[in-house]
What does this fold into?
Amino acid sequence: MEVGERIKQRRKELGYNADYLASKLGVSRSTIFRYEKGEIEKLPTEVLEKLAISLNTTPGYLMGWTEKPQDKLLNIYNQLDSKKQDEVYNFAKFKLNEQNKKIFTIAAHSDDPNKEITVKEFDDLNRYLDEADKNFDDK
It folds into this structure.
C-alpha cells in the first residue's frame, strides 16, 4: 500500500471527508486528493507530520515503514472514542502498577522467644513500613 492509499484509508476510517482534512491542514481539497492519488510523491516532513497528527496516526504508518509495537498500539488507541481511550489508559496504568509492585519481606528473628522490641526498633519498623507503603502507592 502506498502513502496516498494509507492517507485515504485512514481518513475514511476516521469518517473524515477531504474538505474536513484539508481544513485541518490548511490546504485545499484538491491537494488532499493529490496526496491520496500519489500525485505529490515527496511529502515535506512538516506536511507528513501534520497529516499524521490530523489522522491520529504516526508518520511511520503513513510512510509504510515497519512499525514498532507501540506504533501499532497508538494506531488502535487513536481509533477509540474518548471513553474507550480512558479505559485503555486505566488498564495500562493498572498493569504497570502490577508489574512494578515490590514484595517487601520483613523478618524478625530472635533466639529469645520472650524478647520485646524497643521503642526505637518499633519506630524504625514503622518508618520502613510507611516508606514501603508510600513507594507502593506511587506506582
Summary: The CA atoms of residues 7 and 31 lie 12 Å apart. The mean pLDDT is 85. The first helix runs from residue 3 to 13.
